Amino acid sequence: MDFVGGCGSDKLEVIPKGALFNGQFQPLARTALLVRESVAALTKAPQVHAQLHLLRESYAKDKENPPVFAAQDAFILVVSNFSKMGFFDSIDFSPAVIAPATVGHGKSPGKLAWHQWTSLEHNTHIRNMFQVGGKDGQGNTWMMAILPPETWAVVEGHLAGLADARPSKL
């Protein structure tokens, strides 16, 4: 049997809609627990082997469109939280800095200011995606999302409400 060390693979967490919103939004901790339970169930060796087999068959037929394992009416939301990686602090180009940083740059010239995590291409496969980048040198939390236009109004409303909320623990 062949194995690839350190191989990462997408995992689709199937969480029923009512588990996240049942008249009111559920606490984030509940959502996180549901995701962890789903990942634990879907990362057993037989499950991973079966998924990779289906992926291989699908890509043999169509290399452009990745397979999506979900109900036809499912809403797929992709979230990547890079904040736990300390992404803005993990890469340091300061030895290569040849001029002082401008005022207000942040805590360290040579550190990342922005990370473009996905293609600028917009198609049906790159939608409903969120990426939390983490905090920059000035303490700002960077996020990026690719959403349908009608969804942005909802997101902006929620973000506006965060101004009065307690500070993020990112």
Report the β-strand fraction as a percent range: 5-15%
Major sheet: size, sense and barrel closure?
3 strands, mixed
Structural class, by secondary structure, is alpha+beta
How would you state the average pLDDT, rounded?
Answer: 73
Please explain how this structure is put together:
- With 170 residues, this protein is an alpha+beta fold.
- 31% of the residues lie in helices and 10% in strands.
- Strands 1-2-3 form a 3-stranded mixed β-sheet, with no helix packed on it.
- The termini are far apart.
How is this fold's topology laid out?
Elements: H1 17-20, H2 28-42, H3 45-61, E1 78-81, H4 87-90, E2 129-135, E3 141-146, H5 149-161
Parallel strand pairs: 1-2
Antiparallel strand pairs: 2-3
Brief summary:
The protein has 170 residues and is of the alpha+beta class. It has helices at 17-20, 28-42, 45-61, 87-90, 149-161, and strands at residues 78-81, 129-135, 141-146. The chain has two domains: 8-69, no CATH class; 77-164, no CATH class.
